[in-house]
Amino acid sequence: MSHSDLHRTGPLSENADVLRIIDAESNRATEGLRVVEDYVRFILNDRHLTALAKQLRHELTAALKPFSTIDRLAARQSDTDVGAMLATPAGSERSQPADVAAASFKRIQQALRSLEEYSKIALHLPLPLGEGRGEGDVAASLEQLRFRAYTLERAVGITADSLVRLANARLYVLLDGRASEDEFAALAQSLVSAGVHILQLRDKQLADRQLLSRARRLREITHGTSTLFIMNDRPDLAVLSQADGVHVGQDELTVADARAILGSKPLIGVSTHSIEQVRQAVINGASYIGVGPTFPSATKQFNAFTGLNLIRQIADEIALPAFAIGGITRDNLPQVQSAGLNRIAVTAAITESADPSHAARELLASLSKQSK
Regarding predicted confidence, which is higher, 1 or 369? Predict the structure, then answer.
């Protein structure tokens, strides 16, 4: 068959050509979503992200119902599709599973955009549109699915990146500014020497200039070590002190606002107190989550405790690094580990100990016995 034979004109041929595009791009998008779903299911082992990918795939199928499956199949010409004979560029090689997922996200988004645009043409062509919906409804649904794919891509990408960056992070210690900067520095140095993975500066009493001075001192102490420095609540001070990231609560700046101040590289942690908040933190692009309060705390009063049940829920469905917090000690740590998490954030168990460095080493030894 010649090229001229394939190039047809008229409403009926245009009908078939648009259906060919819709058929091809719907296949492309659903195949891409299945690839992503396999990645978050089998590689990240994340039940939450798997459910979101599956939901997108099912909603795409529903959005395309107005286009008759039989008519799409009749219009399909896989054997004469010129695109099928194009060579794959060398740049499309994949070296790891994350590359496969990243490429699939782009394929999904491109396909959804094409579907969105060509579905609008259905207004002018005799395409079968059932289910009581017009092409405007189809295009709007596809647009929403495309933006949700962008959001899912961010959550998947940040989860994968955080799992690498925080792969060895098990012990997270929160410090206040102490009575003097020298006392603060001595404590911080002893914990860095003990091998604590993350130190957070959290002090609600110090004036901004004092807090920034402590932050800069902590940056000096942790610089060039394997210990990360996180600033609590203050993205502005995190930037000024060149911290590795910031931690925010449910009533503080959002992840998006913190990211706007910090940029793309720093870590952003979020305190969570329910599985709904955990799921939302993942979608919002958090780098890690704090989970609690688990037990009564010697340093902070709470009206309610999330306990071990929330830890079990997170261990069952969330891959993003999660640190259990709230009253955790060497004695009750096994309960946290049995519930499914082996990352903890503590304050009093170390800072109020007679020998903080020794207490840190004991907790590190207990954490090293199990990995999650």
Answer: 369
